[in-house]
Design brief:
This protein is an alpha+beta fold and 341 residues long. The chain has 10 helices and 13 strands. The chain has a single domain, classed as Glutamine Phosphoribosylpyrophosphate, subunit 1, domain 1 (4-Layer Sandwich), CATH 3.60.20.30. The strands form 2 sheets. It has an 8-stranded mixed beta sheet. The chain has a 5-stranded antiparallel beta sheet with strand order 7-8-9-10-13, with helices on one face.
Length: 341
């Protein structure tokens, strides 16, 4: 006796060579696939000083959204979208990552970046790398390497092995900022440890793709005037973390983010059963109590997205699947936003 076929088997065998097959595929991607989500940030701090004003920042952020979100709609993976978003933000001199990075105490630029694939739960990154255009590109290569995180000389050697062209990310604005801050004290050897304006922050991207996969990426030029060898949060799980449950990217004072282990804390709370909104609210309530100075963005596996801040400004924009939005006119002070109640 022949084997009985189920209804779905009969349907797909019958239509396997039919023109209707394309319609079925279209139906699947339209109604069955996960709605992609995207959220990005360009730093956090006390003001929009040095950024060209609110509308200029909004234009820069939305240009990234407009280029990256269609990739997700066309089937790009969350990791691919995150990498592309980070590259675009690194290339914009308005933000402190890649081109336009701030100078350290010795007048040199050293950048850090991290990438985490939530599906594989794999973290990779570089710390204090110089003379590359897109630090996030090195983090991508390290995803498949035996050593996932490299610092200064190791990262420089990797860039040489990859034959990446030497690149100077210095801009006139960053040089003038350094000279202005340095002019009255050229014996100064350490960074200030005060909160910096939003112009000297970080960039980050979190994405959810059509397959329900999550990824997070973060890149920074540091806080400016820091001591040589200082390690930021950006290339650690405190500042950038993703699993199958949620992804988070942080910005702000790196030492504060490290002390709270912010990105990993939020993701672990979601994994333990809290909603993304609850995890953000609890984490930022604790941060406010501890007088921390930072912000974060995130997406969970259900498609909920959120941002939070204890500082006055977080430069955040997102696409929720229907519309674009941003945080640029949010009230000052500690605040958490989520598109889910």
């Amino acid at each position: 006796m022949g084997r009985l076929l189920g209804g779905s088997q009969i349907l797909f065998r019958t239509l396997s060579s039919s023109p209707l097959r394309l319609k079925i595929i279209h139906f699947y991607h339209t109604f069955m696939a996960v709605q992609p989500k995207l959220i990005i940030h360009g730093g956090a701090g006390s003001s929009l000083q040095g950024k060209g004003g609110l509308e200029a920042v909004r234009k820069s952020l939305y240009q990234v959204i407009d280029q990256v979100y269609p990739l997700l709609l066309r089937g790009a993976s969350a990791k691919e979208a995150v990498v592309r978003g980070c590259q675009l933000l690194e290339d914009d001199p308005r933000f402190n990552a890649g081109t336009g990075s701030v100078l350290q105490s010795d007048g040199q630029i050293r950048m850090s970046a991290a990438l985490m694939d939530g599906t594989l739960q794999r973290f990779s990154g570089v710390i204090n790398v110089s003379r590359v255009k897109n630090p996030i590109d090195l983090a991508v290569v390290l995803q498949d390497a035996s050593d996932h995180v490299l610092s200064d000389y190791g990262a420089a050697e990797l860039a040489r092995e990859l034959q990446l062209p030497l690149y100077n990310p210095l801009t006139d604005q960053r040089l003038q900022e350094w000279l202005e801050d340095r002019k009255d004290n050229f014996r100064r050897t350490m960074a200030n440890v005060v909160s910096e304006p939003a112009g000297t922050g970080t960039i980050g991207v979190v994405a959810l793709d059509q397959r329900g996969q999550l990824a997070a990426g973060t890149s920074t030029g540091g806080k400016g005037f820091e001591r040589i060898g200082r390690v930021s949060d950006s290339a650690t799980p405190a500042g950038n973390y993703a699993t199958t449950q949620a992804g988070v990217s942080c910005t702000g004072i790196g030492e504060d983010i490290l002390d709270e282990c912010l990105a990993a804390k939020i993701v672990i709370r979601v994994t333990d059963g809290q909603s993304l909104q609850t995890a953000f609210k609890k984490s930022f309530a604790e941060a406010h109590e501890h007088q921390r100075d930072f912000g974060a963005i995130g997406i969970d596996k259900t498609g909920a997205l959120a941002w939070g801040k204890t500082c006055d400004v977080i430069l955040c924009a997102f696409h929720d699947g229907q519309n674009k939005g941003d945080s640029l006119e949010a009230d000052k002070g500690t605040q958490v936003f989520s598109d889910r109640i």
